[in-house]
Write a structure and sequence with these properties.
Elements lengths: L11 H4 L4 E7 L2 E7 L5 H8 L18 E4 L2 E4 L12 E3 L12 H8 L9 H16 L19 H7 L10 H12 L7
The chain binds FE2/S2 (inorganic) cluster (2 copies).
The site of one FE2/S2 (inorganic) cluster has 12 residues, from loops.
C-alpha cells in the first residue's frame, strides 16, 4: 500500500529506508535495536549502545581506529552495516578487559608505553588479536618469505605489515610493536 504524504512531512524518499528490528550480540550481551539498514556497525555501537571504545577516525576504512572483532575476525566497523550482523559474535575493546582486570594485551600496551593520546589504541588492540588469529591459521601476508612453512614466524616485518591498516597519528609505532611482541611471546605476567 502506498503511503500518503502528509503536508509538511518529509517524503519516504527524504526520510530514507525504514528501520529494521535487529538483535546484536556484543560482548556476550544481546541488544534489540530498531535501526535503519544504512547505519554502520560503528555508529550502532557508539551512538545506540554507547560503547564508545571503538573510535571513529576516518569513517571510510583508512585508519583502523574502529576495528572490532566479528566472530573472532578483525573488521573495520565503519565499513560494515549493523543489520548484516544479526547472530554474529561482536567483541569490542569493552569486552576484552576492564580497568580493574586488564586483558594481557592491554597490560602489555601500558607496560610498553604503546600509546600517547590513546585514540587508536582500542583499534590497535582488537586488530592485534585478530591478526594473531590469522597468523595461527597460517594466512600469509605480503612479506611472508616462506609460503611453504607450516608456521609463520612473527617477525617485526610481519607485525608491521599485518598491522599496517591501523594508523597511529602519535607515531607510537615502536612501542606498539614492542607491546605486541611482549604479548605474543607469552611474556605477559597477566592472565
Ligand atoms: S574509522 Fe573505520 S577505518 Fe577509520
Ligand atoms: S596513540 Fe595517539 S593516535 Fe595512536
Amino acid at each position: 500500500m502506498a503511503l500518503e504524504q502528509v503536508a509538511g512531512e518529509p517524503s519516504q524518499e527524504e526520510r530514507g529506508p525504514e528501520a529494521f528490528l535487529v538483535s546484536l550480540r556484543v560482548n556476550g550481551v544481546v541488544y534489540e535495536l530498531e535501526i535503519e539498514p544504512r547505519v554502520t556497525l560503528l555508529d550502532a555501537l557508539r551512538e545506540r549502545l554507547r560503547l564508545t571504545g571503538a573510535k571513529k577516525g576516518c569513517d571510510h576504512g583508512q585508519c583502523g581506529a574502529c576495528t572490532v572483532l566479528v566472530n573472532g575476525r578483525r573488521v573495520n566497523s565503519c565499513l560494515t552495516l549493523a543489520v548484516m550482523h544479526e547472530g554474529d559474535e561482536i567483541t569490542t575493546i569493552e569486552g576484552l578487559g576492564t580497568p580493574e582486570e586488564l586483558h594481557a594485551l592491554q597490560a602489555a600496551f601500558v607496560e610498553c608505553d604503546g600509546f600517547q593520546c590513546g585514540y587508536c589504541t582500542p583499534g590497535q588492540i582488537c586488530s592485534t588479536i585478530g591478526m594473531l588469529g590469522e597468523l595461527r591459521a597460517g594466512a600469509p601476508s605480503h612479506v611472508t618469505a616462506d609460503l611453504g612453512s607450516p608456521e609463520i614466524e612473527l617477525s617485526d616485518a610481519e607485525i608491521r605489515e599485518r598491522m599496517s591498516g591501523n594508523i597511529c597519528r602519535c607515531a607510537a609505532y615502536p612501542n606498539i610493536l614492542a607491546a605486541i611482541r611482549q604479548y605474543a611471546s607469552g611474556d605477559e605476567g597477566h592472565r
